[in-house]
Amino acid sequence: MTDQATLPLPPEVVALFEAFVANDLVRALRIAERWSERHGAASIIDDLAVPALEEIGRRWDAGALPLAQVYVSGRICESIVDEFLTESAIERRSLPRLGIAALNDQHTLGKRVVSLVVRSAGYELADYGSSANPEELARRAAADSLDILLLSALMLSSALQVERVRRQLTSLRAPTRLMVGGAPFRLDPALWQRVGADACGATASDAIRLISELGAGR
After folding, report:
1. Predicted structure pTM score
2. Prior bond of 66 cis (ω within 30°)
3. Per-residue pLDDT of the chain (218 residues; tens, 9 = 90+)
4. Rounded Cα–Cα distance for residues 61 and 44 (Å)
5. Which of 81, 94, 154, 183 is least enclosed, having the fewest CB within 10 Å?
6. d(Cα 96, Cα 147) in Å, to the nearest integer?
């Protein structure tokens, strides 16, 4: 049974977290439906699903949940998005041109959550997966004329590879700006500047604000 005292979250978020842990898609959809009726579908991602997913991530980081739980929770969240946030209900935004990737990380919960948030806000987003080659990733970003490349890192070794992406973009004279996030950047608040990123988000919801700020400077 979940210890709710450890979750400084609204009851609906706790309930969704528990549905994730129980791998209960039907319950999760019912929770999202009730939320949508009270608060509107547009707030499902930022105010309901993302906090529940972030709690899943914290529990996994602490060793309290298996990696498989992270994956299943992400799939349930995608089902919620498909059910309540249809393409026709979202005003699509083609600019700025965005891409997202994880650097040599197979544990891509952070990237999955940010992708959900960004897409639910209407932005088109190219997904470059998990790249083991920072230089190749930079070349793809430049070839696709990306305005902003979002990079997620779970490990310090992966976070440090952002510097290689920056060097390659500079050598290609590509104007692509780098937004980073993940545990290493939360633990060392100055790390993002040292590796040459243009912005750093502490939470998935920060991505929308930072995209707006960086996109305004294109």
Report:
1. 0.70
2. no
3. 344 434 578 899 999 999 999 999 999 999 999 999 999 877 887 788 878 887 887 787 678 888 788 778 878 887 887 787 655 455 556 679 999 999 887 666 678 778 877 876 778 899 998 877 999 999 999 999 999 999 998 888 899 999 999 999 999 999 999 999 988 898 899 999 999 999 999 877 788 889 988 876 55
4. 24
5. 94
6. 6
Identify the CA nearest to 198 among candidates 149, 158, 160, 155.
Answer: 149
Identify the three-state secondary structure at position 200: strand
Q: What is the Cα–Cα distance from 132 to 175, expressed in whole angstroms?
A: 22
Question: What does each C-alpha distance from 180 to 25, 81, 88 come to in angstroms?
Answer: 31, 24, 30
Contact 16, 49 (CB under 8 A): yes
